[in-house]
Prior knowledge:
mainly alpha
Amino acid sequence: MKARHWVDFLYAHPRLTFVMAGAFFILFGVSSVNLFVLLQKNVELFLDYGWVVVEDGALQQFIELVGSAYLSLVFYLLFKVCERILVERWTVKRLRELNATAPSK
Length: 105
């Protein structure tokens, strides 16, 4: 299914879009909690002890943290899509009314 079909579906179902926006917002928050701090500490570990920490799993942890960061980004983008659809849907009627009553030039 193409992305346009998903947008059309979400536009046609505002309540579902609202619920999904809330879910993606919560998932974004949960997946990004302390992410910056953990990444910073992981990089500091590498800087302090060098590649020796790879044997202790620091490289795997770093890759998992970067993966979590991208997952968090996906949740944020999905939230923004839902938000944009809701804002456009809620404001389009009023904008059409304003444009219809505006004097033509």
